[in-house]
Amino acid sequence: MTDLLVLFLVRLIQGLATAFFWLLLIRVIMSWFIQGNYNRTFHDIYRVLVQLTEPVLAPIRRVMPATGPLDLSPLVAILLVQLVEWILVRLLRLLA
């Protein structure tokens, strides 16, 4: 692989991981305020965040033991995404 292609793929993977991190973080923070908030735009944004992040969080919740009202699946998802990012970047750099 050419160095330019590897650099592009590394940046793409890092960008996607960073974007997913922020989506999860914003979703978690918004979930703290969703109950008492009757703003339609707020709920619409939250619904989009749920649709974007739930495909990753749902399988994690099925595997994790119940922790009561505390949902640790976003934390696990962030750690897994960072691990996958690290592995893919290392593999790409080895191929270069």
Q: Which terms would index this structure?
A:
3 helices, mainly alpha, 96 residues, 81% helix, single chain
What's the shape? elongated
**What is the residue-mean pLDDT, rounded to a whole number?**
92
Contiguous helical run count: 3
Low-pLDDT parts are none
What does the model show?
Helices cover 81% and strands 0% of the residues. With 96 residues, it is mostly helical. The longest helix is centred in the first third of the chain and has 31 residues, at 3-33. It is elongated. The mean pLDDT is 92.
Brief summary of the model shown:
This protein has helices at 3-33, 40-63, 73-95.
Write the layout of secondary structure elements.
Elements: H1 3-33, H2 40-63, H3 73-95
